[in-house]
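Sanity check. The docking grid for manganese (II) ion depends on where the pocket ends up, so I'm generating a full predicted complex first rather than guessing from homology. Inputs follow.
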Amino acid sequence: MREHITLTQFIIERQRTMPAASGSFTLLLNDIVTACKRIAHLVNRGDLIGVLGSAGTQNIQGDVQKKLDIITHDIMVSALGWSGHVSGMASEEAEALIPVSGQYAKGQYLVLFDPLDGSSNIDINLTVGTIFSILRCSEGAEPELKDFLRPGREQVCAGFVLYGPSTLLVLTTGNGVDAFTLDQDIGEFILTHRNLRIPDETSEFAINMSNQRFWEAPVKRYVDECVAGSDGPRGRNFNMRWIASLVADVYRILNRGGVFLYPYDVRDSSRAGRLRLMYEANPMAFIVEQAGGLCSSGRQRIMDIEPGDIHQRVPLIFGSRNEVERIVNYYASADD
Ligand code: MN
Ligand code: MN
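Predicted complex below; grid placement will be based on this.
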C-alpha cells in the first residue's frame, strides 16, 4: 500500500530537523489549510450555492470584485486572526493592513494573501487558487507597515492552493517545494509530489500576446525568436501556453518547465506591471527558486525588490532557468 503522509505529519517531521522552529508555525499552517478547505468546498459547489458572479464592487486595484473574492477574503481573515500565531495580515482585497482583533494575542507571523487568484476565471469553471506568503515579526507588538514591506527573500514560507480537478497545496519553507493533494474523503492534504524541480530547459512560453505592441525591446526579441521556431536563431520550435490564472501557470511550469512573462509594458508608466509583489510575485518567486527556477522583473531578482507599497505591482518573468537567464541577458544588453 502507498505510504500516506499528511501535511501535518510532514511539517512536524520537518520541524524536528529545525531547532529554531516552533509548534506555532505548524498551527498557523493548519489554520491556512482549514481556510483553503472551506474555499475549495465553495468553489466546488459554485452555482449550486449561488457564490459565482460579480459582487458589483471594485477593490483597491480597480479590479471588479467577484462574490467569491469577498467571501474568500473573509474566510482567510477569520481563520487566521483568532489563533494567537498571527499579528497582522494583508490581502489583495483590502486596501489597509488587517489588524488582529485586540481580544487575541499577537503572534510571531505576518500573513499576506491573495484569497482567490484568477478569480476572473471562476465563472467559466477554470482553475483558481489561494496564494499566501508568511513573514516573521516580533511577537506581541502591533505590526506597522514597515514590518510588512520586506523583500521576498525574508519569507519563511510561501504556498498556494490550486482549486482544479484536484485540490492541491504547493508549499515551500525554504527547503525545496512539495505538493499535497486534498483527499476529499478524509479531509486531509496528502503528500503526492516530493521535491518538485523545474527543468532547466523548455520549449514552452506563456505570455498575453495581445499586449505585444506595448512590450519593451528585450521581450519583443525573446518572443519573436521563440515564434520564429526552427527557422529562427533558436533553431527549434516553441509552443505557447497561457491560462491567465497565475496559480495554474505556475503549477504547469513547476511540473514540466516553461517560462511565464507578464513584463513591464509602456501603456501606463504609473503601473510597473500587472502582478502584485507582496502576495503574488514574492510567494511565487520563493516557490520557483526553491524548485530550481528563476524569477525576475527582467532587471532585478524579484525577491531582492525593496517594496514601497503593500499593493505594489511588478513585472514578472519566471520559470525554467535557461530561458529566464536568456531574457535577463536580453534586458542587460538592451540597457547597456
Ligand atoms: Mn491574483
Ligand atoms: Mn485575487
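Relevant for the grid: The helical segments are 7-16, 23-45, 67-80, 145-148, 217-228, 246-256, 277-290, 321-335.
Also worth noting: Residues 69, 92, 114, 116-117, 119 surround manganese (II) ion (ligand 2) (CB under 6 Å).
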